[in-house]
Write a structure and sequence with these properties.
This protein is an alpha/beta fold. It has a single domain (11-188), classed as Rossmann fold (3-Layer(aba) Sandwich). It has helices spanning 22-32, 44-53, 71-78, 83-86, 99-107, 120-128, and strands at residues 11-16, 38-40, 56-61, 90-94, 112-115, 134-139, 144-146, 163-173, 177-188.
Length: 189
């Protein structure tokens, strides 16, 4: 069953961004949505330790001047050896968004991009999309992240070079964490 804002979300949230301003506002928003604990992202080691204690970990990124500055963090999460982190929801929050910014987030494997301001009920619905339902991820030689083939941005599951494409269907559950439902290799010609 998908999560709704009326339930306690048994998930931790790491806030990526400045300690004040947008980062502090995002931490307050995470607490209001029921995340516990809420902490500032301090590297993959800290996230791995939290993932051992909490079944589900979200990464909530505050608006930054350059989206590309988030790439090292996104790559560390998306290419982590820990399944608990690799499939964690990665969400970017911004007051101003361009099509280019959204495309860059998609290419980095973000699960969602949310334009602020956003009401609490609407936000709970967007967060709820990340749990309790099957999610498909693709891995190619140049991409690892959610299936975005239905978006206007480029199709990451087909990186144009052919070769193997790994399709992984997962389910995020606040009680048990990440469950892999299916893991297939496909060949793109």
């Amino acid at each position: 069953m998908p999560w709704s804002g009326d339930q306690t979300l048994k998930a931790a949230a790491f806030v990526v961004g400045p300690r004040d301003g947008a980062g502090a506002a995002l931490a307050d928003l995470a607490r209001a949505q029921g995340f516990a604990p809420v902490a500032r992202y301090g590297g993959l080691g800290k996230a791995e330790r939290q993932a051992d204690e909490t079944p589900l970990v979200f990464f909530l990124c505050a608006e930054v001047a350059s989206i590309e500055s988030l790439k090292p963090m996104a790559d560390a999460i998306r290419f982590s050896e820990s399944r608990k982190l690799r499939f964690s929801p990665l969400i970017y929050f911004a007051r101003t968004l361009s099509v280019d910014s959204i495309r860059r987030c998609i290419r980095m494997g973000f699960d969602d991009v949310i334009a602020l301001p956003y009401g609490g009920g609407d936000l709970a619905e967007r967060i709820g999309r990340q749990v309790g339902r099957p999610q498909v991820y693709y891995e190619t030689s140049t991409y690892f992240g959610p299936d975005r083939r239905d978006r206007a941005a480029e199709r990451p599951a087909d990186d144009g070079d052919g070769g193997q494409v790994r399709r992984i269907e997962i389910m995020r559950n606040p009680e048990t964490g990440i469950d892999v439902l299916q893991d297939d290799f496909q060949v793109v010609l």
